[in-house]
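INTERNAL AUDIT FORM
Audit reference: QA-55
Scope: verify that the stored structure record matches its stored sequence.
Auditor: D.O.
Record contents follow.
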Amino acid sequence: MSKSATKATKTLIIDDEPAVRKLVRVNLESRGFVVDDVSGGTEAIRYLKQAWPDVIILDLVMPDIDGIDICIWIRAQSDVPIIVLTAHDEEDLMIRALNAGADDYVTKPFSPPVLIARLQAVLRRAARRIRGETEPSVEIGDLTIALEARRVFVGGVDVQLTGTEFALLAVLARKLDSVVTHEELLVEVWGPEYRDESHYLYIYMGRIRDKLGTRYRDFLETVSGVGYSLHSSPSPHSL
């Protein structure tokens, strides 16, 4: 991404380590990003009550407020993309962060080019969400997937999906009753950099099933080792 393409992109770094904040800041500013940074959760909340950046880079372990709690607070207010940056690489912590609403997860020590590639990927996804598309709704019983409005309803009740959750369900809805491979979903929703990150799908599909509720969770089938399919009627093979 060129400097001119990113000079208006405002990034907030939330990390209690000055060296990390400096490293990220220098690398982003050299590529034209506008960068602010804060040293903890309390300062972050104070900042965000005044203004929202285009993307947030968030440490998980901070002395004042846990990064997971900050992520939950942010997600309750905004769909701003969040990349978690942490020294902990345990799978359960990654799952907690994604469940809290994080869009991606990068471990320390990190390669600045890798972080920037992930940052650009979440920004591309956010831009696609903002642009939207003129598409008809997909209806399965009283489940309505309004592709243009980017909303989902069950029995007329709005299902609160995150941007990433909706993007996944929309890909499946556009190919109703067809199997969409892991790679197709990952590339379409996250980008080509994520074609091997199948663990993301396991986490997000579970969340989508939970939000659709007992009436429709079995319409979303896991095709073991291949991908997923959204059916126009319940699948006997759904997990």
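Auditor finding: record pair retrieved intact. The radius of gyration is 18 Å.
Action required: none
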